[in-house]
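Re: [help] complex structure
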Amino acid sequence: MNYQPVIGLEVHVQLLTNTKIFCGCPTTFGSEPNSQSCPVCLGLPGALPVLNKKVVEYAIRAGLATGCAISPRSLFARKNYFYPDLPKGYQISQLELPICIGGHLDIEVDDQVKRIGITRIHMEEDAGKLVHADISGLGEGSGVDLNRACTPLLEIVSEPDLRSADEAVAYLKKLHQIVVYLGITDGNMEEGSFRCDANVSVMLKGAAAFGTRAEIKNVNSFKFVKQAIEYEIERQIDLIEEGGKVVQETRLFNPDSGVTRSMRSKEEAHDYRYFPDPDLVPLVISNDWVEDIRLTLPELPEARRARYTVELGLSLQDAEVLTSNRELADYFEGCLGHGSQPKGAANWIMGEVTRGLNDRGLEITACPVTPKLLADLLALIEKGTISVKIAKTVFDEIWQSGKGAAEIVEEKGLVQVSDSGAIEKIVDEIIAANQGQVEEFRGGKEKVLGFFVGQIMKASKGKANPALVNEILLKKLKGEG
Amino acid sequence: MELFDLTLHELSEKLRRRELSSVEATGAMLARIEATDKNVNAFITVTPEQALRDADAADRRIATGEGEPLTGIPIALKDIFLTQGVRTTCASRILENFIPPYSATAWEKLKERGMVLLGKLNQDEFAMGSSSESSAFGVTRNPWDLECIPGGSSGGSAAAIAARQATATLGTDTGGSIRQPASHCGCVGLKPTYGRVSRYGVIAYASSLDQVGPVTRDVRDCALMLGAVAGHDPKDSTSVDLPVPDYAAALEGGVKGLKIGLPKEYFIEGLDPDVRRCMDEAVATYLSLGAEIVELSLPHTDYAVACYYLIATAEASSNLARYDGVRFGHRNRDAKGLMEMYCKSREEGFGAEVKRRIMLGTYALSSGYYDAYYLKAQKVRTLIRRDFLKAFEKVDLILAPVAPTPAFRIGEKVNDPLQMYLSDIFTIPVNLAGTCGISVPAGFSSGGLPIGLQLVGRPFGEESILRAAYAFEQATEWHKRKAQI
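Output below.
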């Protein structure tokens, strides 16, 4: 391919604050239409915005986590346009002096680390929602639900540093992981808490200047982002190959057909008439506050992953799985806090715990086997009190009853048999009853060893210490005992 | 002397001594409105039932000894203040039937003190104008001469005081909208420093300039009203968290040794001779009271009107976008689509001057023009503010005319917006500088129309201009004359 795609992303992140950005209304999703509104978010005459401090704190968190500089003085601006879901006829956003500038994110594509620049992060309010439906009492028509109006958003704008749809997706996934880790958003893409506009252009490889870009609006899944960008790259290349020209425009992606179509051209583009909002004073942020927030930042996935491999000796793959979300990593560290060995805990979490969660469609935070309960179980294995096999049964029992491992082991008499006399007795019985197999073994067919172990474990109801069983059995079969 | 002739502080005395009840005083005002407002048209809405109910409640409060100096005083508000349950139109068709679900902070504060609301006052539509002629509810007439305008935009607030229809009123001042009508109607009107009074619940015209202030019969009343509405409001981010002084207590003390500046740019050729005479006499009065008079320069004065008409209209074009017929206010019901609904609703709802300013402001903010107009105007605004701050290094306050002429005749300037805009030439710079100014009666024209004197103070220097205004008032008789109506 002679063409080089160039991609920049604008990501909107809905913040997880209890109240809206400029008023005290709650931000709960899915409430009765217009039940979460007041003069401010309804845009009534005379109403004035008052900035929610939590939103600023969250924006600073996002900025610090992505290596941005935090502006000591930042401004809110009005973006003017008419639409029924925009109650004031303008959106309060930031243009000049956004809160965060000049950060970056490192992504990995094909085992290569690539640094993607972040131009800026700014705060803004969301619009409401139009409902086209049969509205009770009014008949067929369009209604306006302003519950979402004035909910806080961050817009995170990347540099045009991405060169493929895969890079774009890697960037988005990384960014998504970070903002969720920071606890500033629920990251729910279906509900629109994390959505993205993509600026896509293509140029001949080695060209000095970027091509004309098209902006694809509001793509809200990783899969659609990949599809939309790939389609758009192809469309632009085909257009150029046929002697046409890419025009600057806004396009919409249709997930059903997988194509983008023109929404409005540059000529039809709004003139938003941005100007500083006179209702809000310049936002002054002290360095002390920024440093206080920096201290409360959680360890981010990258740092955690490095620590797991270097300090805890986990494999890179295991470390990646465990740090893929903050709660899972917290769970893992909870087990370590209760004395578990890293490797054992990692295996159990990625194995039994994950399986249990997946079977029931649960999140790790809802796991009935708490880190403490799991750590106690793992301790019994390490001490040799129970076998791994028995431990799995005990694990299921803990999940069901919430009881401690020791209690279950005690109740059900599952303590591992490590008394060599008792095991010897069972081995003797099994050998006596299976002389044919003994002959085969002695004839050189060592595979029958597994048969004997199985029979012995069965006879001991799984409680016999497998290491002792092996040792004693071999001795007896070889006629040494 | 009639009941309705009492100043606020006189009425307050009588109420506290129980010589008079609030119901009686309120009744007298309502009767006065009934008798005079056919001619004056100061009110858009009168609320007699509620007023008498509130007056009765105030009387009971006074009887229990819990009354305050303002309890039971009947007042009226410019129709730009949201009053919960009472129609608020901003003198516009687009809000003709708008009944607000909440109240402005300024009104909340007065209501808490037990003040009684007589009704809502006429004004220029959305406070855009200098004559109250742009109201959708008919022009307000000047009680001193019914053929003349009362000034604007708070024309109703001043006319109601001159006609003795209310004991005190509140107005708003974006470019002179309190001081100019106060001057034209012979009342006291004060524009506080930007941030002194909450704008919450006040319909926005130009957010960075709008400020709430009282229009009253004398300076003491003005101090009492200002003290009641001033102060920080957590609902208005631009309101300033500074303690509110006891303005009435600050009135005494005189002007001996006070340095008063006369800006040469305000005493220009073409200043009406009657206005000039009143200013000269005022200067003589201050000299006789022991003040020192200093000539000074505010060099960027010439650019103030142009600067104002870019910033104010730019902000207005955005502030008035919410009147789209979607959630409240007038909506054209025949429109076929969304765009048509917007266009027709706004076309029918807004008057000519409002449309003119929305267009001006939209233009000033448009891509390609923003730097040349809006941004440039902001820079000029900074220079004008600096002019004032520099002047206040040399003088304590500035004395100037409020308006270049006395009240002009109704209709005289409606077709000449530029002439109309120039009537605010001496008041606009104070708003741009964000500082405070007061208008006090300082004489009459040969035709018998009142002429006001403007005193401009340092930011948050309300005490100082009130004190100087009070000294002047005590030394003159102008405030005692009453419009014959």
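The two ends of chain A are 73 Å apart (CA to CA).
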